[in-house]
Amino acid sequence: MHNGAEMKYVQEAYDTEWVTTVGANIDELERQVSKYMGKRSVALASGTAAIHLAIKLAAEKVYQSSTGISTPNGKGYGGSMLGKRVFCSDLTFDATVNPIVYEGGEPIFIDSEYDTWNMDPEALKQAFKLYPDVKIVVLVHLYGTPAKIQEIRKICSEHKALLIEDAAESLGATVDGQPTGSFGDYGIISFNGNKIITGSMGGMLITPDEYSYNKAKKWSTQAREEALWYEHEELGYNYRMSNIVAGLIRGQWDFLETHIKSKRKIYKMYEEGLRDLPVSMNPMGIVGISNYWLSCGLIEANSMEPMVRNGRSAVYEIVDGKSCPTEILEALNIYNCEGRPIWKPMHEQPIYSGNSFVKKDGNGRAGSNAYIKMGGSVAVSSDLFNRGFCLPSDNKMKFEQQKVVIDIIHRCFR
Ligand SMILES: *Cc1c(COP(=O)(O)O)cnc(C)c1O
């Protein structure tokens, strides 16, 4: 959703010929986000890039505290994730996880809980019992709903583990008045095309100190040393935000609260419209205040039609008074409304089928399908994936359009 201020800043960038990764829009955006988060924040090309640099910074810090060897003047790159385990939310977009693997680390997935759909603090505790050596935890606030951040932060500090907060979907959501993204040792936000504030792309890393800010900025601009020529002592990346993209974001920044209000209105209308069906909405406001980024439905277990899916096809049996995510998504699609499945849990993804997964009862999977302990309940993340669906939630959606969506879902349950 655009507000009109975006083109002014983009035009300024053009007129003054600051179209590269330096310029007033980047400086101003960094200033505003840093003020909002209460921490120095670095403007980057994407949220994924921000997670990658957060992993690198955390790895370096873990290395420094375990060896006592610092990297003076920020020279050299001491941290290595090679073969190291990292705990990570199971129910998320794979951009949360992949940067762990970019650095050679091994993600271990932690199950969700029903209160927030996010990482279960109990499962995290179990994971620390199984893998007490883990020093980095990556936590997502899914669909704009804050995770049980205070509990998780406490567990992390008890185990002297660093916390990376993926607030890509939860920009503007708060817990105890503090913004998500600012609780962890490192936080990230995203300005990708579908996020609550967008510059078509872009992301930011929220850092704990001046050192991390400078380091991330340096790494993101090919790690150039101060020298007469291009001198390199470290591995660099082309991860800096463009001043054009920063102009778009800067133009939207002041409208964060407006966007949250319209997202909330959309959510409330679905909540009201689906009230008479055996469908609950994704939890908002259990912990802190959500940004209502995405509205989702969850079908009650005893109102689910039998459904079998693989990646390419799905079958289900039509039963009176019941439905299933596939039926709903297919019906929406016929009317050109875009719904989506819930994120497929990472432990079910073919690429991560060899990775460990831990549930709150301590059961799960240890590496390549060897189960830590057989039995136990279905994973919460898998259950949410099976029964849940994402509703069209764009800010531009009209009242009438949303009514059609609600009508279609009612018809699925007849
Ligand atoms: C969008 C998203 C990201 C990645 O952000 P990009 O800016 O697209 O790289 C990471 N995590 C989650 C949960 C996201 O939704």
From TrEMBL:
Keywords: Aminotransferase, Pyridoxal phosphate, Transferase. The modification N6-(pyridoxal phosphate)lysine is found at K195. It comes from the Bacteria. Pfam families: DegT_DnrJ_EryC1 (PF01041). The active site is at K195. GO terms for molecular function: pyridoxal phosphate binding; transaminase activity. The keyword Phosphoprotein does not apply. GO terms for biological process: polysaccharide biosynthetic process. Belongs to the DegT/DnrJ/EryC1 family. This is Aminotransferase DegT.
